[in-house]
C-alpha cells in the first residue's frame, strides 16, 4: 500500500487504473481514479469509472455493475431495434430499386454491419491522434474474419475449397499485414 502511495507522489502518469483494486477504502479508491491519468474520463458519454468507485462506493459495487449491465443490454436492444426498423427497410428498398437478388442484398447488409465499426473506430483514432487504435482495430478485425469466420465456415460447410484462390488471398493478406506493420 505504501509503495502505491509513493508511486502516486513520484510518477502518477505511470500508474495503471487496475491498481485501484489494491486499495482498501472507498475514499482512497475514488481519489485514485480521479487523480490517475489511466483512469481518466475521455468525455464521450459518462464517466463510468467515477460511477463505480465514487458514486456508489464499495457497499453498492454490485448495484453499479448491475446498472452498467442494464445500460449495455439497453444499448444492444436499441441497436437491434434500429437495424430492424431503419436498416432493413432501407436495404429492401435499395435491393428492389437495383433489382438485386435477396442473397446479394443480405451479403451487402452483412458487409456493412461488419465494416461499419472498423470505419468508425478508424475515424475516432484519426480524430484523437491514436494510430495504435487504428492499426490494432483493423488488424484485429482482419485476423478475426480470416481465422474464426473462415474456419467456422470451413468446419460447417459441405463444399470443396479451391486451394489456389485461397492460398493467393492468404498470401496477399499476410503480405499486406507485414507491409502495414513495417510502415507504421
TrEMBL record:
<dbReference type="GO" id="GO:0005432">
    <property type="term" value="F:calcium:sodium antiporter activity"/>
</dbReference>
<dbReference type="GO" id="GO:0016020">
    <property type="term" value="C:membrane"/>
</dbReference>
<keyword id="KW-0406">Ion transport</keyword>
<keyword id="KW-0812">Transmembrane</keyword>
<feature type="transmembrane region" description="Helical">
    <location>
        <begin position="166"/>
        <end position="183"/>
    </location>
</feature>
<keyword id="KW-0109">Calcium transport</keyword>
<dbReference type="InterPro" id="IPR051359">
    <property type="entry name" value="CaCA_antiporter"/>
</dbReference>
<feature type="transmembrane region" description="Helical">
    <location>
        <begin position="133"/>
        <end position="154"/>
    </location>
</feature>
<keyword id="KW-0050">Antiport</keyword>
<feature type="domain" description="Sodium/calcium exchanger membrane region">
    <location>
        <begin position="71"/>
        <end position="181"/>
    </location>
</feature>
<keyword id="KW-1133">Transmembrane helix</keyword>
<dbReference type="Pfam" id="PF01699">
    <property type="entry name" value="Na_Ca_ex"/>
</dbReference>
<keyword id="KW-0106">Calcium</keyword>
<protein>
    <recommendedName>
        <fullName>Sodium/calcium exchanger membrane region domain-containing protein</fullName>
    </recommendedName>
</protein>
<keyword id="KW-0813">Transport</keyword>
<dbReference type="InterPro" id="IPR004837">
    <property type="entry name" value="NaCa_Exmemb"/>
</dbReference>
<keyword id="KW-0472">Membrane</keyword>
<dbReference type="GO" id="GO:0006874">
    <property type="term" value="P:intracellular calcium ion homeostasis"/>
</dbReference>
<dbReference type="InterPro" id="IPR044880">
    <property type="entry name" value="NCX_ion-bd_dom_sf"/>
</dbReference>
<feature type="transmembrane region" description="Helical">
    <location>
        <begin position="60"/>
        <end position="83"/>
    </location>
</feature>
Amino acid at each position: 500500500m505504501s509503495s502505491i502511495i509513493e508511486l502516486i507522489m513520484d510518477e502518477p502518469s505511470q500508474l495503471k487504473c487496475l491498481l485501484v483494486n489494491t486499495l482498501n477504502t472507498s475514499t482512497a479508491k475514488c481519489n485514485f481514479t480521479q487523480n490517475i491519468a489511466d483512469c481518466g474520463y475521455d468525455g464521450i458519454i459518462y464517466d463510468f469509472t467515477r460511477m463505480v468507485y465514487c458514486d456508489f462506493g464499495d457497499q453498492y459495487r454490485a448495484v453499479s455493475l448491475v446498472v452498467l449491465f442494464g445500460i449495455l443490454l439497453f444499448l444492444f436492444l436499441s441497436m437491434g431495434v434500429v437495424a430492424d426498423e431503419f436498416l432493413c427497410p432501407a436495404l429492401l428498398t435499395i435491393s428492389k430499386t437495383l433489382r438485386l437478388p435477396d442473397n446479394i442484398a443480405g451479403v451487402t447488409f452483412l458487409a456493412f454491419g461488419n465494416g461499419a465499426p472498423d470505419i468508425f473506430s478508424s475515424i475516432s483514432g484519426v480524430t484523437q491522434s491514436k494510430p495504435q487504435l487504428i492499426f490494432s482495430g483493423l488488424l484485429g478485425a482482419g485476423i478475426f474474419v480470416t481465422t474464426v469466420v473462415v474456419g467456422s465456415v470451413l468446419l460447417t460447410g459441405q463444399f470443396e475449397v479451391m486451394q489456389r484462390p485461397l492460398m493467393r488471398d492468404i498470401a496477399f493478406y499476410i503480405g499486406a499485414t507485414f507491409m502495414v506493420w513495417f510502415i507504421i
